[in-house]
Amino acid sequence: MAATGVAAGERAGTEAGGHVDAPDLRLFVFALFFLFGGITSLNDVLIPRLKAQFTLGYAEAMLVQTAFFLAYFLVSLPAARVVQRVGYMATAALGLVTMAAGCLLFWPAAASHAFPAFLAALFVLAAGITTVQVVANPLISLLGPARTAHSRLTFAQAFNSLGTTIFPYVGALLILEGLAGDANAVPHSYMGLAVLILLLAGLVFARRGRLPHAAPAVLPPVTRSFDLLRQTRFGWGALCIFLYVGAEVAIGSLIVGWLMEADVMGLGEGEAGRLISVYWGCAMVGRFLGAGLLRLVSPGRVLAGAATLALALLGLAGLLDGPAAGWALLLVGLANSIMFPTIFTLASEDLGPRHAEGSGLICVAIVGGAVVPPLAGLVADAAGLRLAFAVPAACYAVILAFGLAAAGWAAQRARVPAAAR
């Protein structure tokens, strides 16, 4: 046992060749992506329920996302250090137990009849999800050859999208429709999730010794990680993660209200809530397709194309009336599909042994989900939902620029002889 507390088998994995060929472990990681993606998307169902229950405006209701995504800012770097000390799978198990604790806190939150209590439960839940995500993003890159990391992470993100497609539909049935008159609909739903999460935590912990370690035995200070932001590629990529997550979460949070608008679809709350699954389902389909596309086309070009599509669809949503305006917003999910995994790998592909630190900082950047949605909510309260779409549109414009720059970097590198690199 080394000073870091990681099993010798984990160290041997990296020493043998830098990655582990373990299909069964990839299934575990896919399950993690499915779970934390699905639970995150439940916020889109929870927002209209709490908005009505506590008579909130859009900006106040968006505090659900602020409480949730603030955990990424506060927990990501400490979680990266836990990975460095105890290994990937033990950290994943710890994250899952924390997620279960957050789910269980929904029961006292409901009993208190206080909106801040729900925000506290969401923060604890998100702290666990953050820990799991700090593990999952670099881990999927290690479970196979480096040359296919873009494709493999995109494929894993497709399972994340499978969760985000299924969970909101079931959540809308339970929270907004079937149990809408039950004051305990929310805590009952989250307690069921707690049981599922604890079972998975036990399975993950049992396999904790089969993976490579993430970092050297001597751990650098947490603050040292921030020097990675001085690297143009990584710093810009981290900003794009901030903006992408903020835009995606803001749109998902506004879907129910948008589809309920009389000049859009005029749907009831439950029916609009079920259609959130279309938004996330488009992301799922796009990620499965993108996993193949990224083997054929430069990741930078794919990212630029996706950002252009997102801008076009947001423009149509803001300009059109009727169902076409509703469907234009829902289809932005297709444009979102490859953004996170592509930005992540473009930003961190040259970090080498500092991959875990980079993953921690990338997860810090996910705090964009805490910042951008409230800004969109403020615009929605002041000027209406159509103008609120300008907030995520500005985010996609920056991502478009990063994609074009990354495509240029790739073309320049291709012109340099391999021997000179």
Question: Main sheet, how many strands, which sense, barrel?
Answer: none
CATH level 3 topology: Growth Hormone, Chain: A
How many structural units, i.e. domains? 1
Helicity, as a percent range: over 70%
Tertiary shape: globular
Number of helices in the DSSP assignment: 21
- Poorly predicted ranges: 1-17, 213-219
The name of the CATH superfamily reads MFS general substrate transporter like domains
Order of helical and strand elements:
HHHHHHHHHHHHHHHHHHHHH
By DSSP, the count of extended strands is 0
Rg: 21 Å
Main features:
0% strand; Growth Hormone, Chain: A; globular; 421 residues; mainly alpha
In short:
Helix content is about 75%, strand content about 0%. The protein is mainly alpha-helical and about 425 residues long.
Describe this structure in words.
With 421 residues, the chain is mainly alpha-helical. The protein has a single domain (8-413), classed as Up-down Bundle (Growth Hormone, Chain: A). Helices cover 77% and strands 0% of the residues. The chain is built from 21 helices and no strands. It has helices at 8-17, 23-41, 43-53, 58-61, 63-86, 88-104, 106-112, 115-142, 149-178, 185-206, 232-260, 269-274, 276-293, 299-319, 323-330, 332-336, 339-348, 355-365, 368-383, 385-388, 390-415. Helix 11 (232-260) runs antiparallel to helix 17. The longest helix is centred in the middle third of the chain and has 30 residues, at 149-178. The radius of gyration is 21 Å and the shape is globular.
